[in-house]
Amino acid sequence: MTHPILITEQLAIGYAPRRGSRRIVAANLNLRLHRGEMVCLLGPNGAGKSTLLRTLTGMQPPLAGRIWLDGRDLHTFSARELARRLSVVLTERVETGPLTAYALVALGRHPYTSWHGQLTVRDEEVVRWAITAVQATHLAARPLHELSDGERQRIMIARALAQEPIVMALDEPTAFLDLPRRVEVMQLLRRLAQETQRAIIVSTHDLDLALHIADMLWLLTSNGGFYAGAPEDLVISGALATTFAHEGIVFDQQRGQFRIDRPAQRQATLTGNGIIRYWTAQALERAGWRVVAGGETELHIVITGDDHQPSWDIYRDGVKKQQTRSLYATIQWLRQQYQEEHQHERHA
Amino acid sequence: MDAPQQMSSTTAITVWPRLGLQPLALTLMALSTAFAFVLSLSLGSVRIPLDQVLAILAGGEAERASWKTIIVDFRLPKALTAMLAGAALSVSGLQMQTLFRNPLADPFVLGVSSGASLGVALVVLGVGAANTAFLSVIGLLSNFTLAVAASIGAGAVMVIVLGLARRVQSSVTLLIIGLMIGYLTSAVVSLLLYFSIAERIQSYIAWSFGSFGGVTWSQLRVMAPTIGIGLLLAIALTKSLNALLLGEMYARSVGVNLKQARFGIVTSGAVLAGTVTAFCGPIGFLGLAVPHLCRALLRSADHRLLIPACVFIGATTALLADLAAQAPGLSVVLPLNAITALTGAPVVVWIILRRGVSRGTFGV
């Protein structure tokens, strides 16, 4: 086992305003980060993800404890020394005026260049390597303001990479991206961590994605708790389930994913199988019916037709009431029926 | 993911963009300054042929002795003042636009010129209000007195702003403080104007129009080195300015000492703007427009290019504006401030629209 390159000892993070009392967000954090690892920092809003990232990157002083980077106390580095070991991608949108993507990545060489910022041959090599590593060679000559959000994020990652850091910290790098772009960026980070033997910390709200990609999860809870471990470890220990338990979502340990916690009021039985059955059950769950394996239920749905043209027969108390051709129509019909009855009950 | 994979197969022939210093563009800009310089020595109420101008500049004798007097005693100091002022204001404006990440920032956002105005107003208007017997003093209120008053005013505001710059956390706070100082001083100036007499008001307003003409050789000996120091400081801060393009948090993350850099930029910007205002009056527009012009012409936000470009284009613009203010064919000299904006604004709007770069500048 290699030595961790980032270690925290009894770290407490939070705010100590000049006036007013200190607000501790989380305390007694003993973190370990290794080369080649990608860590996803998860937690509900306000749990302190950004505070932890800012503290680990030296942008905010810790309230207690110490941070060791590469065997040295983080706060003994000069700004320039720190910039050669640690780089960041922040949530704020960068507006630079007329600058090409290449020139932007070149700004990452700041901690290495002379007083006037002249790039050496080696500097340019690193810039090109960084752009190639994020697969953005085709973007190099484009002005920054012409890039899409996803392309822009790639360039910002290349810029952080051009600092040749040991640790890269990214604050919600997927926040403004669509799903394919999110997967792309996360996979890119994962690959960079492995291939360049850097440690990468990513704070994110993409729980599912983090579960599938991260080497390790750091989990901050709303009440200042902290869990660390492989995603699967945190599933088994139930840490994931408890962290988000109050947030209206439930972690399904069987399926390994989060689902929205919607207490089912009624039960239904379902005849059919395969993919149609799976999505029918999903749709029923969304509308408030829990699909049970057997037994007597008032509502029974039979899937007919084939996979390409399915239809649904709706039975109530054993009597076929309706046939629908889409799940949208099924749910609509069910809602109408039950709403009407509900109203009748009220009037009666 | 298709495009990157296709690209990777052609990486071998990737043509990387060059981060060159565009020596050709900068040389052209320098030539334009030289041209405007010679032109401003040649044109005026007395037209002196170009070859004679060059001969006098080279230290030779002119066909007519009066030409040499006109150039050496009047036109040369004025042209040099214009060049220094144009360069100083443009570089100062560039620094403020980058520091505050605001395309509307100019050298005067720090309140330095407001301070200078207050100093001048106190001398011109205040003395009169205190004692009307000093009315005859107006004639004695030489350019030099005004320069001293303006320097003291600008210096006082600069000390206040610099003191605050070391304390405040965010540049936006600094921007607001600068604006407030501006409002405060103009309020005091308004009060002074209200209680003053017409002659003195006119003399204050004449100062506020701005002019390159009143600076003598002996004043240039103070003005030139001061602006030189301001420009050198600006050049020394090039790298920090480039990092600040990313925003303050990113700048810090690449190793910029934010407080130091901010203090240096504010010092340089205030010295440049304060010196020009002290000697030439509050000259607007140049400091706002020239940086935009340079960004549009070079299509770059790199300060390694922009600072020399602002020096050259700023000097050229100031020389041309001064020429225009002399109103060829008319016997009067028009207010410089009116001319800079009147001739410059349409040009800048045209260039920026045509180049379509405003979109990429600070998200505007």
Care to describe what's here?
The complex is a heterodimer of chains A (348) and B (364). Chain A has 11 helices and 18 strands. Chain A has 348 residues and is an alpha/beta fold. In chain A, the strands form 4 sheets. Chain A has a 6-stranded mixed sheet, sandwiched between helices. In chain A, a hairpin with a 4-residue loop joins strand 12 and strand 13. The mean pLDDT of chain A is 88. By secondary structure, chain B is mainly alpha-helical. Chain B has helices spanning 2-9, 23-42, 50-57, 65-99, 112-130, 143-167, 171-194, 198-209, 217-236, 238-244, 248-253, 258-280, 286-298, 303-325, 336-355. Chain B starts with a helix and ends in a 9-residue tail after the last helix. The interface between A and B is large, with 49 and 42 residues.
Given helix and strand content, the structural type of chain B is: mainly alpha
Biggest interface goes to: A-B, 49 and 42 residues
Share of helix of chain B, binned: over 70%
Q: Report the sheet-strand fraction of chain B.
A: under 5%
Distance between the termini of chain B: 31 Å
Stretches of chain B where pLDDT is under 50 for at least 5 consecutive residues are: 1-11, 132-140
β-sheet strand percentage of chain A: 25-35%
Q: Write the CATH homologous superfamily of the largest domain in chain A.
A: P-loop containing nucleotide triphosphate hydrolases
How many β strands of chain B by DSSP? 0
So, CATH architecture of the largest domain in chain A? 3-Layer(aba) Sandwich
N-to-C SSE series of chain A?
A: EEEEHEEHEHHHEHEHEEHHEEEHEEEEH
Output the CATH topology of the largest domain in chain A: Rossmann fold
